[in-house]
C-alpha cells in the first residue's frame, strides 16, 4: 500500500501540496491527472523519498521502483550497463529478458544517444521493473512510446506489480494510458 495523509509541501515559500491525501491499495493502480505544475511529480518524489513532506504522514514500502519524468540514462555507458548500475550485475538475465520483451534485445550494447525517445522510455521502465521494488512509481511513463509497445510495457507492469499485489501510482494526462493499467483516475482540482 501507498498512502499520503494530510501532506503539505512547499518549495521555499511556494506551497505545492496542501493537506493532500491519497491512498493506493495493494494491487491497485492510480493515475494522477492535472495541469502542468499542479504537483504530480512532487507527490512521486515524496513517495520516492527524494524530498520530505513538511507535514503529514507518508506510508511507502522501503524498496520502491521508480520511473522518473526524465529517462535518467547515462550516455557514457551502454544500455545494459545503465540497467546493471541500478539493478545489480547479478540480475543480468532478468535485465536481458525484459529488454527482449520490449523489443530492445538487440540494443544491449548500444549507446544511449543512438536510441530513440521511445526506446529510452521503454528501457527506463525495464530498469524499474528489474529493480523489483514493492511498489512502482511512474512519472509520465509512456510519453513517446508507440501504441503497440505501450500495451507490451503495461502488460509487464501488470504481471510484475499489480498481479503480485504491489501498488502502482502514475502521472499521465492521457486517459488511455491510465486505462492500459486499469488505473483509477485521481484528478487534481
Ligand atoms: P507537475 O509534475 O504536476 O507538472 P511539479 O510537481 O513538477 O508539477 O511542480 C509543482 C510546482 O512546483 C510547480 O509550480 C513547479 O514550478 C514547482 N517546482 C517543482 N520543482 C521545483 C524545485 N525544484 N524548486 C522550486 N520549485 C519547484
Ligand atoms: Mg511532472
Structure notes:
The chain is of the alpha/beta class. It is built from 6 helices and 8 strands. It has helices spanning 40-48, 79-87, 92-101, 117-131, 147-160, 175-180, and strands at 2-11, 14-24, 29-33, 55-59, 65-67, 136-139, 168-171, 184-187. The strands form 2 sheets. It has a 5-stranded parallel β-sheet. A 3-stranded antiparallel β-sheet has the order 2-1-4, with helices on one face. Helix 2 runs parallel beside helix 4 (117-131) and helix 4 packs parallel to helix 5 (147-160). The longest helix is centred in the middle third of the chain and has 15 residues, at 117-131. The relative contact order is 0.21. The model has no long low-confidence stretch (mean pLDDT 97). Bound molecules: adenosine-5'-diphosphate and magnesium ion. Magnesium ion is lined by residues 40-41, 69, 139.
What is the number of E strands? 8
* Strand and helix order: EEEHEEHHHEHEHE
Query: Which hetero compounds are present in the coordinates?
Result: adenosine-5'-diphosphate, magnesium ion
Widest beta sheet: strand line-up? 5-6-7-3-8
How much helicity do the residues have?
25-40%
Main sheet summary: 5 strands, parallel
Low-confidence stretches: none
Going by helix content, strand content and strand pairing, the class is alpha/beta
The radius of gyration is 16 Å
Number of helices: 6
Rounded mean pLDDT score? 97
**Outline, from the CA principal axes?**
globular
Terminal Cα span: 24 Å
Beta-strand percent range: 15-25%
Amino acid at each position: 500500500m501507498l498512502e499520503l495523509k494530510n501532506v503539505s509541501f512547499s518549495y521555499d515559500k511556494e506551497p505545492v501540496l496542501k493537506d493532500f491525501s491519497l491512498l493506493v491499495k495493494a494491487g491497485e493502480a492510480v493515475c494522477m491527472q492535472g495541469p502542468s505544475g499542479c504537483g504530480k511529480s512532487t507527490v512521486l518524489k515524496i513517495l520516492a523519498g527524494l524530498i520530505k513532506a513538511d507535514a503529514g504522514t507518508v506510508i511507502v514500502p522501503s524498496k520502491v521502483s521508480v520511473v522518473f519524468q526524465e529517462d535518467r540514462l547515462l550516455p557514457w555507458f551502454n544500455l545494459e550497463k545503465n540497467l546493471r548500475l541500478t539493478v545489480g550485475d547479478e540480475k543480468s538475465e532478468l535485465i536481458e529478458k525484459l529488454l527482449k520483451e520490449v523489443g530492445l534485445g538487440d540494443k544491449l550494447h548500444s549507446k544511449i544517444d543512438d536510441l530513440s525517445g521511445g526506446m529510452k522510455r521503454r528501457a527506463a521502465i525495464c530498469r524499474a521493473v528489474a529493480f523489483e521494488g514493492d511498489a512502482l512509481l511512474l512519472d509520465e511513463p509512456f510519453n513517446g512510446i508507440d501504441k503497440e509497445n505501450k500495451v507490451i510495457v503495461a502488460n509487464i507492469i501488470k504481471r510484475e506489480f499489480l498481479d503480485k499485489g504491489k501498488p502502482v501510482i502514475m502521472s499521465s494526462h492521457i486517459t488511455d494510458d491510465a486505462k492500459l493499467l486499469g488505473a483509477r483516475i485521481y484528478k487534481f482540482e
